[in-house]
Design a protein that fits this description.
By secondary structure, this protein is an alpha+beta fold. Among the domains are: 2-98, TATA-Binding Protein; 133-248, Hypothetical protein, domain 2 (Endonuclease III, domain 1). Helix content is 45%, strand content 14%. A six-stranded antiparallel sheet has the order 1-2-6-5-4-3, covered by helices on one side.
Length: 306
Amino acid sequence: MRYEVEPGAGIRLAMPLEAGFRPEYALAYHGRDPLSVSERVEGQGIAKTILVDGRAHRLEIDLSEADRPTDPVARVRVDHDGIPPERVEAIAARMLGLASDPLGFEALIASRADRACILGSRSGLRIPLTADIWDAVCWAVIGQQINLTFAAALRRALIERAGPLHAESGMRAHPDPERVAALEVEDLTALRFSRSKASYLIGVARLVSEGALSLEDLAKGTATDAEAALVAVRGIGTWTARYIMLRGFGFPDMAPIGDSGLATALQRLLALPERPDTKLQEASMQAFAPHRSLATAHLWAGLADA
């Protein structure tokens, strides 16, 4: 990593990327809500409002040189020179999915002729993560049993209600657990949240803000322990826990069993007469261990390609 501090203006980083990096997947993931007030994608760039020490700051990731054949690079800028460059790099690395292991997954697929079609034209696909773990928790809880469009609208409303404003851009940072914990159920039902969804989200936020649930500690431990801790929380089941572990913790071997899109994709992949139940989903995804997270990402992406 090369970086340059601009006193009073911010920090610029040049992050080398591996050959074959596919910027389109990070752009698609972070641009899935075109009306978002927290992140925006324009051309080959991602703008994300992040919360640092209680204040909103603007992070920009330029991917225009990310897929060049030699020396691919992501150029990153944040408008605050007091943030450690290593922290900026860590956030950008999460958002670009740099911890993914596409080569390992593709080697596994090469040894399984009966599963080779999962790859399609997506060689090099990585799994972009949310900028921080809490953002993934909110996506997962908000997204329970509703479609992406409505989930994005609810998340947007939450950010507009509780997220700190970045005055220069007019965008807002995602509210941290403390800000969500300070809300009441009625604050969210006024934004079209169901009472149960509002109660679940505020409840998780209070556990995190009080220190009863440490997301960072869970992310450093085992998948088994993390899933057990998450499903013990009111409102978090297997699907929600595994989504958090996939998009928030970045665990490499997660399959969000019960996901509607995953079931549809497996039906197509395996040429089944009907969508597989959760038992068959679990058994089918076992073939992709220890890379079930990337297998899930490919199956989801394949639905968009169809």
